[in-house]
Amino acid sequence: MMKKQFMVIGLGRFGSSLTRTLIENGHEVLAVDKNEQLVQEMASIATHALQADCTDESVLRELGASNFSHAIVAIGDDLQASILTTLLLKDMKVPKVTAKARNEMHGNVLTKIGADNVIYPERDMGIRLGNQLSSDNLIDYIELSPEYNLAEILAPPAMNGLSLKDLNIRAKYGCTIMAIKTGQSINVSPNAEDAIHTGDILLIIGSYDDIRDLESDYGRP
Ligand code: ATP
C-alpha cells in the first residue's frame, strides 16, 4: 500500500478516530485543532499535531496545506469555520477535500464551494444500523452509490444446494452475487454451476430494495 499524507482539521471524536486509523494503516497525518488540549492528546499519535485556527489563510499556508493531496475537515458545530476552512483549502488547490456535514443544508453548501466529498457520519451510521437491525440475514453492507450497495448476507437454508443458475438471482432480482465465502475460503468469481450452502456468506451487489426482496423471498437463515 502506498503511504499517503493527510491533513485532518478538527480533532473531536470523528477527527481523532480518523487520525488514529490512518496512522494504524501506515499513513502520515498532520492533525490540527484550535483547541490545545485536543492537540496534546493527538501529539503522541499523529505524525505531527499542531494547534492552529484553520479559518486563517496565512495559517493554512504556514502549515503547508497545499502540499497535502487530501485534507479532511472534521469540524462540525461551527458551520462558519467548517465552510471557510473548506473554501480556503480548495482555493489553495488541495486536490481532494473531504468535509463532514451536520445536515443536508450544511452539506449542500460544502459541495457548492468545492468539497470533493461530503460525509454525514451520524446520518449514515443511523441508516446502516437501521438496515442491519431490520434484516435477519444482513451482516454488513457498504453503500457504493446512493442507489447501490455491496451487502454481506448469510445464506438462508432455502438456498442450500442451489447453484447460481438455479437461483437466477440477476434476472429475478437485479442483484449480482460477487463472491461466496465458505468458512475461511472465498470464491471471488463464482460461475453459474457453483452451489450455495447454508451458512455461506454471500457478497451481493444490488439496490437496497432488490437485496431486501431477495432476502424476504428466501426467508430466515
Ligand atoms: P465530533 O462529533 O467529531 O466530536 P463535532 O461534530 O461536535 O465533533 P466540533 O466539536 O464542533 O465537531 O468540532 C470538532 C473540532 O474542530 C473541535 O475540537 C474544534 O476545536 C475544532 N475546530 C473548530 N473550529 C476550528 C478551526 N477554525 N480551526 C481548527 N479547528 C477547529
Explain how this protein is built.
The chain has 221 residues and is an alpha/beta fold. The protein folds into 2 domains: 5-119, NAD(P)-binding Rossmann-like Domain (Rossmann fold); 124-218, Alpha-Beta Plaits (2-Layer Sandwich). The chain has helices spanning 13-24, 36-43, 57-62, 79-91, 104-112, 121-134, 164-167, 169-173, 208-218, and strands at residues 5-9, 28-33, 48-51, 70-73, 96-100, 117-119, 138-143, 148-154, 176-182, 185-187, 201-207. It has a 6-stranded parallel beta sheet with strand order 3-2-1-4-5-6, with helices on both faces. Strand 4, helix 4 (79-91) and strand 5 (96-100) form a beta-alpha-beta unit. The longest helix is centred in the middle third of the chain and has 14 residues, at 121-134. The mean pLDDT is 93. The protein binds adenosine-5'-triphosphate. Adenosine-5'-triphosphate binds next to helix 1 and strand 2.
Summarize the structure in short.
This protein is an alpha/beta fold and 221 residues long. Helix content is 37%, strand content 26%. The protein binds adenosine-5'-triphosphate.
